[in-house]
Amino acid sequence: MKQVFKRPESMTAKPFHFCPGCHHGIVHRLVAEALDHFSLREKTIGVASVGCSVFLYDYFAVDVIESPHGRAAAVAAGTKRVLNDRIVFTYQGDGDLAAIGTAEVIHAANRGDNITIIFVNNSIYGMTGGQMAPTTLLGQRSTTSPYGRDCNRDGYPIKMAEMLAALEGPSLVSRVAVNTPGNVKKARKVIRQAFQMQVEGKGFSFVEVLSTCPTNWGMTPQAANDRIAEEMIPYFPLGTLKQKDVVDVL
Amino acid sequence: MSSPKKVFIKGNEAIAMAAINAGCHYYFGYPITPQNEIPEYMAKHLPATGGEFLQAESEIASINMLIGAAATGVRVMTSSSGPGISLMQEGFSYFAGNELPAVVVNISRQGPGLGGINATQGDYFQSVKGGGHGDYKLIVLAPHTGQELYDLTIKAFELAEKYRILTLILGDAILGQIKEPIVPWIPEKTAGDPDRDWLITGAKGREPRLIKSLFLADGEMEKHCWHLQEKYELIERDDVMLEEVDTDDADLIVVAFGSVARIVKSAISQVRKAGMKVGLVRPITLFPFPRKRLQEIGGRTKRFLVAEMNTGQMVEDVQLNLPGDCEVEFYGRPGGSVPTPEDLFEIISATYEKL
Question: Are B187 and B42 in the same domain?
Answer without folding.
Answer: yes
